[in-house]
Amino acid sequence: MSVHALSAAFGAKGLTPSEKLVLLSLANYADEDLSCWPSQRRIASDTSLSDRTVRSVLCALEEKGLITRQERLRQDGSRASDAITLTFAAPAQISGGAETISGGVRKQSPGGAEAASGLTTFEPSPEPSKEPRRAARTEKKPSDSEIEAIWAAAPRIGRERSSRGELETALRAAKRRGHDPAKILAGVKAAYASTTYAGEHAKGVHRLVESDRWASFLDDPTKPAPAEQPPWNGPPEVLADLRSYMGPDRADGYLRFAKWDAERHAIVGDINTITGLKRNAEGPLKRAGVKLIEEQAA
Fold first, then answer.
1. φ, ψ at 35 (rounded to 5°)
2. What pLDDT sits at residue 8?
3. Dihedral sign, CA of 75, 38, 3, 96?
């Protein structure tokens, strides 16, 4: 725990209650280098906030320049908790006869400057700094058209599990990390067209953006383009029943990766497709005499 980081977090201004709570939780885990890596679930437990709120707040704090996040991977390649640096708690030092404010007790420093130790304060220095000010960071705010394009690319379930505000916050942070919105849009479309996020498996669109999951679905230019998925080749009444029972978006999402076996009067697909259909529509399909068969990998 860094006492300096906690003191700086208590003194930070212009934050919402949720942002203040998360900032204090991060400060509680910070080491002397102002770094920490608590999981989002741990932060949610500490602050009594929901996981979804914690994700949004972390994006907001990063957007405000109060923290930076760096992705960490385990040895097996799986995602670990992010490494978080508390940039808001970095001590401000002003030289050349001005005061250095890092606490409540001021000390005279060489050259007529005063130094402070103990609890951090955020009072402005009474003397102007003689060091050149850092250039203001250019804000990479996404345009309305960029947000709307990615929002429209998500299926209904992906939009229901997200919000435009969360998407804007995630996209803004992604642009600050150097990502191109056009590539993000292409990756989001590819993700929702895959079996990973088809139908009931669809994640909130902001989650694909904030975690950079979209990037893993971009086409590899060294690989041949995949064959187009054929349209539904089964009885129209089966398609109509599924759309009526599950909703058009969800039904079409599953059937995009399935085919009709007329001889067995069955829907055949991979494990994700068949598992999803069993979970969501096995009853009406059984009543219609339609079997669900998992296609064995070659």
1. -115, 150
2. 87
3. positive
Task: Give phi and psi for 41, each to the nearest 5.
Answer: -65, -40
253, 202 contact by CB (below 8 A): yes
- Which parts of the chain register pLDDT below 50? 92-137, 221-228, 298
Name every residue whose Cβ is closer than 8 Å to that of residue 39 and which is 6 or more positions away in sequence: 81
Q: Are 9 and 59 in contact (CB under 8 A)?
A: no
Residue type, 225: A
Contact 20, 64 (CB under 8 A): no
Integer Cα distance of 47 and 209 in angstroms: 24
pLDDT digits (tens, 9 = 90+) for 136-159: 445 568 888 899 999 998 988 888
- 135 alpha-carbon distance from chain centroid: 28
User: What is residue 19's predicted lDDT score, i.e. its pLDDT?
Assistant: 93
Look at residue 121 in the predicted model and tell me its pLDDT.
40
Contact 29, 45 (CB under 8 A): no
**Do 89 and 110 touch, CB atoms closer than 8 A?**
no
- In a 10 Å sphere around its CB, with 0-12 CB exposed, 13-18 middle and 19+ buried, how is residue 40 labelled? middle
Residue 129 burial (10 A CB sphere; 0-12, 13-18, 19+): middle
Q: Is 141 exposed, middle or buried (0-12, 13-18, 19+ CB in 10 A)?
A: middle
Q: pLDDT at position 291, please?
A: 92
